[in-house]
Protein: DUF4249 family protein
Organism: Sphingobacterium kyonggiense
Amino acid sequence: MKKSIFKFMSLLVVSTSLMLSCKKGELFDTSSPKIVEIAFSGSSTIPLEIVYNNAVVDSTRGIFNTMPIPFRLNIAKGGEKLFVREKGKTTTLKSYDINAENFTQELGIFYDNGVIYDVGINYKLQILAKDGGLDFYLDDQIIYQNP
């Protein structure tokens, strides 16, 4: 009988001390998460990195530098800008604004000679037949001349 009373009393003391010590306080991080999904389309001839809040969050893949698959990003702690730069360099080629109100962010990357465009690139290509050969012009500049 004394043992059961002793067990009950010790259980009561332990549970009381746990109940008093486990009071819910404030959250460590009070900001609520803002999750957005980033999707890229386009093409690049060089490896690119996508940077958010001074950290690389994704990059182009493989030997053909394919755009990364869509990924989710918490934008609560950083700014609302996403930067694209050449892999291994610090110079920003293009920055994109992230709208926290929209879940899906579709961004276009078309890289051409150190410049990134949002939409496809249009070239003016002309092929002219001359005496026994063809001349190829790209944006009014000759790129190939058949002798």
Summary: Residues 35-117 form one domain. The helical segments are 2-21.
